[in-house]
């Protein structure tokens, strides 16, 4: 987390500022217009959320999933993008699983499970284990021909990879700030394509989801539910402004730098990681083609937990990550990392794996 992000949140607390209208204060700190710019959406298609799981649950529980209809998942995906959909079995949904393969997936593999009764395919843009980046435009084109929707978890890509929901054909997207967007936990957002809003009936309601006069009086019609226009109807109640103040600082900085430039920088650094791994004899479990990976590189090592602990002693923060027998240690350089830091990491992992664990 950047110092200005922490400072923005700390200042709120230090000044003991009491926002009489939390939603408006969030809008000032982290405008929906900036979130829309990040992913190529319209402002009214954006709803604030405390985390990605909130957005996934809105989608899973609001879509009209009837008995006998099916949802297609990939078991290599992050569990947060699986369990809310599995819960739809209670509504009669059938769950279909796309083949694991080698840790990658494409439209052809998904199409084997898609038919005219498929409601939605849920997938992450970038995989949390090996960094595989899905071709969302190809996948959405296949799905839309069959009348199905595409839901995307963008937590491992937003802020690192370019996203354009219109060009990619994304119908619904959820994201959190605490990964590549460099913000705090507690801030996220949900995107719902404008013409889908009427099909996604909110399964939970609160005062924020219903039209009212706003500040200072907040006058409601207590006898009738009149939902907010567009995506704002999916926000039930008040959110803490504190994480969104920090998120807004981070988002402005990233947009100023430029997501295209950030993406190219990250891919250059991960190219260096992959090439260096070959020289030191460490296996790479991530796709090598730039267009098929995000910012994550997964290395195959013995005893990943121990390797990560040894690297942490040198202030190198990496994580043991595996799923279904695929994985090792996850390395995720951002645009601010340097070539020297990449080379130091490669030297250190060569020492740890080649000598200390041999």
Description of the structure:
The longest helix has 22 residues, at 259-280. This protein has 2 domains: 3-257, Type I PLP-dependent aspartate aminotransferase-like (Major domain) (Aspartate Aminotransferase, domain 2), CATH 3.40.640; 259-356, Aspartate Aminotransferase, domain 1, CATH 3.90.1150. It has helices spanning 3-14, 22-29, 32-39, 52-62, 83-86, 107-111, 136-145, 165-168, 241-257, 259-280, 304-312, 339-356, and strands at residues 46-49, 70-74, 94-98, 118-124, 149-153, 172-176, 188-192, 283-284, 297-300, 319-323, 326-331. It is built from 12 helices and 11 strands. The radius of gyration is 21 Å and the shape is globular. The chain starts with a helix and ends with a helix. Strand 2 (70-74), helix 5 and strand 3 form a beta-alpha-beta unit.
Into how many domains do the coordinates divide? 2
Q: What percent of residues adopt helix (DSSP H or I)?
A: 25-40%
Topology pattern, helix = H, strand = E: HHHEHEHEHEHEHEEHHEEHEEH
The CATH architecture designation of the largest domain is 3-Layer(aba) Sandwich
Main sheet: strands, sense, barrel: 7 strands, mixed
Count of runs of 4 or more consecutive helical residues: 12
- Distance from N terminus to C terminus (CA atoms, Å) equals 35 Å
> Are there runs of 5+ residues with pLDDT below 50, and where?
none
* CATH H level, superfamily name of the largest domain: Type I PLP-dependent aspartate aminotransferase-like (Major domain)
Strand percentage lies at 5-15%
Give the overall shape.
globular
Please, what is the oligomeric state? single chain
Q: Order the strands across the largest sheet as they lie in space.
A: 1-7-6-5-4-2-3
Name the average pLDDT: 92
CATH domain class of the largest domain: Alpha Beta
For this structure, the CATH topology of the largest domain is Aspartate Aminotransferase, domain 2
Cα radius of gyration in angstroms:
21 Å
Which secondary-structure class do the elements indicate? alpha/beta
Number of strands: 11
